[in-house]
DNA sequence: TAACAGAGTCAAGCTTGCTTTACTTTTTAT
DNA sequence: ATAAAAAGTAAAGCAAGCTTGACTCTGTTA
């Protein structure tokens, strides 16, 4: 699962900590997701997409057979 | 989190077991998700949307402050 | 009414998502 | 070059997603 978090964040000049606050998760969680260490839960994916004003499909790109 | 699984399944006249097979999860998992017992992982949500030829947002409706 | 298919549910166990705490490395600005 | 901010990383622990196995409760439909 790839994602555009780093780009979306950069476009708004937000830090991982700032993003974490607005998503109500820890900074480490944002970092781990951004680095592709693991996938967010579906509810968190919704909150991320909503915060960036876009869709889950726009933020995350699923590729068959990786997880 | 609400979902349209039962409807999408009915439109295609698929059983929970049939759906489970094509998603590569157990029948109990399909049942639990359909009944809203818990949310699917993000990868599984992608596979569900893809199988039904639609988007995650079309299958699942997130509502603030439930999970 | 008996039998079968589909749906619902429960328990135990493993894996993954997320937390806190704490530390190291990289980037930015002075 | 130094200091501060941001990013990266790791370990331990709890919560959520998913599994298998087994059992119940619905409809059908023969």
From TrEMBL, chains A, B:
Matching SUPFAM superfamilies: lambda repressor-like DNA-binding domains
Top-rank lineage group of the source organism: Bacteria
Pfam families to which the protein is assigned, alphabetical: HTH_3 (PF01381)
Gene3D superfamilies in the cross-refs: lambda repressor-like DNA-binding domains (1.10.260.40)
One function term, GO molecular function aspect: DNA binding
This protein's record includes keyword RNA-binding: no
UniProt keyword annotations, A-Z: DNA-binding
HTH cro/C1-type domain: residues covered: 5-59
Protein name (record): Helix-turn-helix transcriptional regulator
Organism, scientific name: Sulfidibacter corallicola
């Amino acid at each position: 699962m790839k994602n555009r978090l780093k780009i979306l964040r950069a476009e708004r000049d937000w830090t991982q900590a700032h993003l974490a606050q607005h998503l109500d998760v820890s900074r480490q969680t944002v970092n781990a997701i951004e680095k592709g260490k693991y996938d967010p839960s579906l509810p968190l994916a919704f909150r991320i997409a909503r915060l960036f004003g876009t869709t889950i499909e726009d933020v995350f790109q699923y590729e068959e057979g990786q997880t």
